[in-house]
Specification:
- The complex is a heterodimer.
- Chain A is an all-alpha fold.
- Chain A contains eleven helices and two strands.
- Chain B is an all-alpha fold.
- Chain B is built from eleven helices and no strands.
- In chain B, helix 2 packs antiparallel against helix 3.
- Classes of the chains: A mainly alpha, B mainly alpha.
- Chains A and B meet through helix 2 and helix 8 of A and helix 2 and helix 8 of B.
């Protein structure tokens, strides 16, 4: 019980830290909205006045883009990959290893705190306003809402585990340039964050279905606009659950090795 | 004479920087690989965007690649000359900026020649490959005048994006923040600029043409080179790119020098 109190405190502290730097936190919504502008303009131009393309209606597509940018905003509030690598490079990570808590969990809960602050004070108000102004489609039943939120949470966990794992590669590679860029590329394309998987070439679509990234944006977005429903919905959430477990296992293994690596290097 | 000696000094300072970076050969290669991966990633995303559609607002895939590469090549020069300007805030806060003021050369010039990031080779490799590829695919007829215009518009693009970086840097004199402004404002704006301006709302197009002239970095010059019409603007607007760059950079330089004059050291 007291073990979890530590992590709760980490979440609370990082919530308060965000509140102290609220101007920096809120300003992020500005760049998020520019990305929303970019991608909604691209899709409006691609549809070019047509009501439907590739079986997806225009309104659904615009809603997909908006929900996706909403989730990107939420995911962007966590500790970024380069910050973890900076901790490894400067050796600050060693201080964390000496303390009586689990580092990956500590970061996760710290992220919960800063994400909560960002959602409550910036992302939610702005996106509620956008949904009131523009003609987006909303889920028609409360169960879809619940499943969307659940699926988005699973997506957050998958993203967290993969991003931290990639961040930890800094323990082995002095220069992580290519690896980091590959991660961001996979994150933006294969997750369906800007282009839904339905519009991919078939071979790329099958590739994306076998990778964890689709669980981050594509599945929750598609649930929101009602393109995934019924039995398919349950399968999709099961796939997400599988990737949460798999990516956390991988994170544990990489973390364990990385922690040992620090001891080996010593002094 | 003065300018000549400055150029000589620039290369001397910069060659020291290059030699220092070449000591870390692996890091140097990895950074270029990283840049290439990122740009190839954007090019792939563009390809996937267009896979089920013919064109994006009258622009086909090759034309979009050209538009993208035109922005990247000038960005490469900006990285060499001006990218480190956005970290001026760190220098001011740490008090290390003062060393640029105690030497008998122009502080703007001194700050410019402080760093030479060789990772920009990634930008050059990418954009040269794309230019060649697109030239063949669209069979662009590279007459001498067209080639000269391409070079002039690259200079224009460097001056516009460089001017933007210098302006962001100057904000540090007043607010002690500059890096932050880059990531919140300019980074997303550069992403927006990778796609044809004509797809955006009118107000965005006007801002990109007359307020923050991003449109002159790639979109307007590309319409001239590829014989396309810049919807809603006169057809000759692209030719103004170098002039717009010159004016914009002069304004940016004046603002930076103005900020410098009111700079007070953070130290005691």
């Amino acid at each position: 019980m007291s073990r979890w109190r530590i992590y709760y405190t980490f979440a609370k502290k990082s919530f308060l830290r965000s509140a102290a730097y609220r101007f920096d936190v809120w300003s992020r919504i500005f760049s998020n909205l520019i990305f929303l502008l970019t991608w909604s303009s691209i899709w409006i131009a691609l549809y070019g006045g047509k009501e439907e393309a590739n079986g997806i209606s225009f309104t659904s597509m615009l809603t997909y883009v908006a929900v996706s940018q909403f989730l990107s905003a939420v995911n962007s509030a966590g500790t970024p990959l380069w910050e973890i690598q900076e901790k490894v490079r400067t050796g600050d990570i060693a201080l964390e290893l000496m303390r009586p808590f689990d580092v990956p969990l500590r970061y996760l809960f710290a992220d919960f705190g800063s994400v909560a602050f960002y959602i409550i004070t910036a992302v939610l108000p702005v996106y509620i306003l956008l949904f009131l102004i523009f003609d987006f489609s909303l889920p028609d039943s409360w169960s879809t809402w619940v499943l969307f939120i659940f699926s988005a949470l699973l997506g957050f966990l998958i993203r967290y585990a993969i991003e931290l794992t990639f961040g930890l590669f800094a323990f082995w590679l002095v220069e992580t340039g290519g690896v980091v860029d590959l991660f961001y590329f996979a994150m933006s394309l294969l997750s369906g964050s800007v282009i839904p998987l339905w519009f991919f070439p078939d071979w790329l679509q099958s590739l994306a279905f076998y990778l964890p990234f689709q669980g981050i944006y594509f599945i929750p977005n598609a649930i929101f606009i009602g393109e995934i429903s019924g039995a398919e919905l349950l399968v999709s959430i099961a796939i997400q659950c599988f990737w949460v477990i798999a990516s956390f296992l991988l994170l544990r293994i990489v973390w364990h090795r990385a922690a040992n690596k620090v001891i080996v290097q010593g002094g | 004479m003065r300018i000549l000696s400055y150029i000589q000094l620039y290369f001397r300072l910069v060659s020291a920087g290059i030699r220092a970076q070449m000591q870390y050969r692996f890091a140097f290669i990895m950074r270029i690989v990283g840049m290439l991966t990122a740009y190839a990633g954007t090019a792939t995303t563009m390809w996937v965007v267009l896979y089920r559609f013919d064109a994006l607002g009258q622009w086909n895939y090759y034309e979009m690649l050209f538009l993208f590469a035109l922005a990247i090549v000038s960005w490469g020069f900006c990285i060499i000359l001006f990218f480190h300007y956005i970290s001026l805030d760190t220098y001011i806060v740490n008090g290390t900026f003062d060393r640029f003021l105690v030497r008998p050369i122009n502080p703007f010039f001194h700050f410019m020649s402080m760093r030479f990031d060789v990772a920009s080779f990634g930008q050059f490799i990418f954009s040269i490959v794309v230019f060649l590829w697109v030239s063949v695919a669209l069979s662009i007829d590279w007459r001498l005048s067209k080639l000269l215009f391409l070079l002039a518009s690259i200079v224009g693009g460097v001056l516009i994006q460089g001017g933007m970086l210098v302006m962001i840097s100057a904000l540090a004199f007043w607010t002690t923040k500059s890096n932050w402004f880059y990531w919140v404002v300019m980074f997303p704006a550069r992403n927006l600029n990778n796609y044809p301006l004509s797809i955006y709302p009118k107000v965005v197009q006007w801002i990109a043409a007359f307020v923050v002239p991003f449109g002159f970095v790639n979109y307007f010059p590309a319409t001239v080179i590829l014989d396309k019409t810049p919807v809603g603007f006169p057809a000759y607007i692209g030719y103004f790119s170098p002039l717009v760059g010159l004016i914009f950079f002069t304004i940016a330089y004046a603002i930076w020098m103005l900020g410098l004059r009111r700079y007070k050291s953070a130290g005691s």
